[in-house]
Q: What sequence folds into this?
Protein backbone atom coordinates (compact mmCIF):
# COMPACT_ATOMS: atom_id res chain seq x y z
CA UNK A 1 0.00 0.00 0.00
CA UNK A 2 1.04 3.61 -0.33
CA UNK A 3 0.71 6.77 1.71
CA UNK A 4 -1.30 8.22 -1.17
CA UNK A 5 -4.25 6.12 0.06
CA UNK A 6 -5.95 6.88 3.35
CA UNK A 7 -5.61 3.80 5.55
CA UNK A 8 -8.54 3.11 7.88
CA UNK A 9 -9.24 0.51 10.56
CA UNK A 10 -11.68 -2.28 9.74
CA UNK A 11 -14.60 -2.37 12.17
CA UNK A 12 -17.06 -5.16 12.86
CA UNK A 13 -20.84 -4.73 13.10
CA UNK A 14 -20.55 -3.54 16.71
CA UNK A 15 -17.96 -0.91 15.79
CA UNK A 16 -14.99 -2.77 17.31
CA UNK A 17 -11.66 -2.55 15.48
CA UNK A 18 -10.62 -5.84 13.89
CA UNK A 19 -6.93 -6.08 14.73
CA UNK A 20 -4.56 -6.95 11.90
CA UNK A 21 -6.83 -5.64 9.12
CA UNK A 22 -6.97 -2.29 7.38
CA UNK A 23 -8.89 -0.90 4.45
CA UNK A 24 -8.38 1.75 1.81
CA UNK A 25 -10.81 3.34 -0.61
CA UNK A 26 -10.07 2.51 -4.22
CA UNK A 27 -11.56 4.14 -7.28
CA UNK A 28 -11.78 3.72 -11.03
CA UNK A 29 -9.27 5.83 -12.93
CA UNK A 30 -8.42 6.31 -16.57
CA UNK A 31 -5.66 3.97 -17.72
CA UNK A 32 -2.89 5.71 -19.63
CA UNK A 33 -3.21 9.49 -19.85
CA UNK A 34 -1.06 12.03 -18.09
CA UNK A 35 -3.19 12.66 -15.00
CA UNK A 36 -0.89 12.47 -11.97
CA UNK A 37 -2.64 12.61 -8.59
CA UNK A 38 -0.26 13.07 -5.67
CA UNK A 39 -2.99 12.31 -3.16
CA UNK A 40 -4.41 15.83 -2.90
CA UNK A 41 -7.25 15.35 -5.35
CA UNK A 42 -8.58 18.73 -6.45
CA UNK A 43 -7.02 20.62 -3.50
CA UNK A 44 -5.27 23.16 -5.73
CA UNK A 45 -8.41 24.42 -7.44
CA UNK A 46 -8.16 22.59 -10.75
CA UNK A 47 -11.29 22.22 -12.82
CA UNK A 48 -13.18 18.94 -13.08
CA UNK A 49 -12.05 17.08 -16.16
CA UNK A 50 -14.44 15.95 -18.84
CA UNK A 51 -15.02 12.20 -18.91
CA UNK A 52 -13.98 10.39 -22.09
CA UNK A 53 -16.08 7.21 -22.27
CA UNK A 54 -13.63 5.58 -24.73
CA UNK A 55 -10.83 5.55 -22.12
CA UNK A 56 -10.38 2.27 -20.24
CA UNK A 57 -11.21 2.59 -16.53
CA UNK A 58 -9.23 0.48 -14.05
CA UNK A 59 -9.05 0.08 -10.27
CA UNK A 60 -6.29 2.36 -8.94
CA UNK A 61 -5.04 -0.31 -6.53
CA UNK A 62 -5.40 -3.51 -8.56
CA UNK A 63 -4.15 -2.46 -11.99
CA UNK A 64 -0.41 -2.98 -12.58
CA UNK A 65 0.13 0.17 -14.64
CA UNK A 66 -1.52 2.63 -12.23
CA UNK A 67 -1.64 0.68 -8.97
CA UNK A 68 0.07 -2.18 -7.20
CA UNK A 69 -0.98 -5.12 -9.34
CA UNK A 70 -2.88 -6.81 -6.51
CA UNK A 71 -4.95 -9.80 -7.55
CA UNK A 72 -8.51 -10.20 -6.37
CA UNK A 73 -9.00 -13.58 -4.70
CA UNK A 74 -12.44 -15.16 -4.62
CA UNK A 75 -13.57 -18.12 -2.55
CA UNK A 76 -16.59 -20.22 -3.48
CA UNK A 77 -17.37 -21.25 0.09
CA UNK A 78 -16.48 -20.27 3.64
CA UNK A 79 -14.61 -23.55 4.02
CA UNK A 80 -12.24 -22.56 1.17
CA UNK A 81 -11.50 -19.25 2.88
CA UNK A 82 -10.88 -20.98 6.21
CA UNK A 83 -8.49 -23.46 4.56
CA UNK A 84 -6.59 -20.63 2.85
CA UNK A 85 -6.33 -18.56 6.04
CA UNK A 86 -5.23 -21.55 8.11
CA UNK A 87 -2.38 -22.25 5.69
CA UNK A 88 -1.45 -18.57 5.40
CA UNK A 89 -1.43 -18.00 9.16
CA UNK A 90 0.72 -21.13 9.69
CA UNK A 91 3.32 -19.68 7.32
CA UNK A 92 3.27 -16.38 9.22
CA UNK A 93 3.64 -18.19 12.56
CA UNK A 94 6.58 -20.18 11.19
CA UNK A 95 8.20 -16.95 10.04
CA UNK A 96 7.59 -15.21 13.39
CA UNK A 97 9.14 -18.12 15.29
CA UNK A 98 12.14 -18.43 12.95
CA UNK A 99 12.84 -14.71 13.40
CA UNK A 100 12.76 -15.06 17.20
CA UNK A 101 9.73 -12.80 17.61
CA UNK A 102 8.76 -12.06 21.17
CA UNK A 103 6.05 -14.05 22.95
CA UNK A 104 4.04 -10.83 23.07
CA UNK A 105 4.22 -10.41 19.26
CA UNK A 106 3.25 -14.04 18.68
CA UNK A 107 0.39 -13.77 21.16
CA UNK A 108 -0.90 -10.61 19.50
CA UNK A 109 -0.73 -12.28 16.09
CA UNK A 110 -2.69 -15.29 17.34
CA UNK A 111 -5.35 -13.02 18.80
CA UNK A 112 -5.56 -10.90 15.64
CA UNK A 113 -5.71 -14.03 13.45
CA UNK A 114 -8.72 -15.33 15.37
CA UNK A 115 -10.47 -11.97 15.05
CA UNK A 116 -9.70 -11.82 11.31
CA UNK A 117 -11.14 -15.29 10.66
CA UNK A 118 -14.23 -14.50 12.74
CA UNK A 119 -14.77 -11.22 10.86
CA UNK A 120 -14.20 -12.59 7.35
CA UNK A 121 -16.21 -15.78 7.79
CA UNK A 122 -19.22 -14.19 9.51
A:
Amino acid sequence: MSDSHKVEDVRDDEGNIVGGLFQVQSKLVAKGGDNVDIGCGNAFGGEDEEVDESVEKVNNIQDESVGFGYTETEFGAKSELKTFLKSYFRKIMKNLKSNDSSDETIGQFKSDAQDIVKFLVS
Q: What stands out?
A: The first strand starts at residue 7 and ends at 11. The chain has a mean pLDDT of 86.
